[in-house]
Amino acid sequence: MAAEIHSRPQSRRPVLLSKVEGHQDAVSAALLIPKEDGVITAGEDRTIRVWLKRDSGQYWPSIYHTMASPCSAMAYHHDSRRIFVGQDNGAIMEFHISEDFNKMNFVKTYPAHQNRVSAITFCLASEWLISTGHDKCISWMCTRSGSMLGRHYFTSWASCLQYDHETQHAFVGDYSGQITLLKLEQNTCSVITTFKGHEGSITSLWWDPVQQLLFSGASDHSIIMWDIGGRKGRTLLLQGHHDKVQAICYIQLTRQLVSCSADGGIAVWNMDISREEAPQWLQSDSCQKCEQPFFWNIKQMWDSKTIGLRQHHCRKCGQAVCGKCSTKRSSYPIMGFEFQVRVCDSCFESIKDEDRTSLATFHEGKHNISHMSMDISRGLMVTCGSDRIVKIWDMTPVVGCSLATGFSSR
Fold this sequence. Notes:
- By secondary structure, the chain is mainly beta.
- It has 2 domains: about 15-275 and about 360-400, Methylamine Dehydrogenase, Chain H (7 Propeller); about 300-355, Herpes Virus-1.
- The protein has 4 helices and 32 strands.
- The chain has helices spanning about 300-305, 345-350, 395-400, 400-405, and strands at about 15-20, 25-30, 40-45, 45-55, 60-65, 70-75, 80-85, 90-95, 105-110, 115-125, 130-135, 135-140, 150-155, 160-165, 170-175, 180-185, 190-195, 200-210, 215-220, 220-225, 235-240, 245-250, 255-260, 265-270, 310-315, 320, 330, 335-345, 360-365, 370-375, 380-385, 390-395.
- The strands form 9 sheets. It has a 4-stranded antiparallel beta sheet with strand order 1-32-31-30, with no helix packed on it. Strands 2-3-4-5 form a 4-stranded antiparallel beta sheet, with no helix packed on it.
- The longest helix is centred in the last third of the chain and has 7 residues, at about 300-305.
- The protein is globular, with a radius of gyration of 23 Å.
- GO terms for molecular function: zinc ion binding.
- This is WD repeat and FYVE domain-containing protein 1.
- It comes from Sylvia atricapilla.
């Protein structure tokens, strides 16, 4: 089934190919079927559906299956046509889809969690089903026997998961804003390290095993790139969304990061340039520019007979400054600040007009986005959310062309 060929606008923005509607509640997950004009969706209305594109150009459900509990997460392995659906009750159900995508057979149920399943990964090599849930744990189960192999508990809800199939390392983000790196073994695991850089809960993770980079999105509207291979910790902070970052996907071939937020924002970040790391905020009892005391510095206020000032931080140099010494705002994309942030007056003077040139493109998805998935080989993206609508996008105008990357919209 070949996709329709759409003329691409000169403004280089995502092209909406299709809308898929039919769910009666929020759509929790949507995945494009590789090499097919089809999409698999799972929803809070307790249904899992396989939609195939008909000759009319419309997507119609070839499979419609009702579950016992709302569907909260999904993983699909195309080569074996195995699908795993996590539910609100903590169970994960495995199905096998027929070659023509018109029938789905139940395989087994995995009692993976005691509460809502938040993320699922299937590893064919080890036959492991790895998942996280709102019971504050990661579990890994054997898909041959259906038995539990191991569990590890966190201090708060585990919200998202990425897995390195070669090294058996798992990255787990949680609601406290922490990311934990675990090494999974057959019946045990060890905590390698933890990362803390976000001021809100972790909502999405993406692991690139080639460059050994981890990207995390959070409810604080920001994205952080962590250099795992170089053991540098946090290296880049990206701020361009105005709502929580719900999904991210790094395209290693073109060095671009695609991110989606709850307000419908779609951002494409150019990561193929040398960016600057945002500074750590410095602590001081007085303004590091004019030396006036901050309001908690009782002694200096008494000695100088002045009223203490409120503390701010310059986003470019990280210094603790007062409001009078940081009256300006500026974007600074090289450091990841795509919209205007507070900078001290001296840093503002050092920023040239060309330094304000955006290093990302921003687009409007025009619906609430809670989940996104990409078929990178075709440059296609699917988004879904609480508005019950699934949208399929041609992203090739903004993430590379067929000559440069091998992308094709066919």
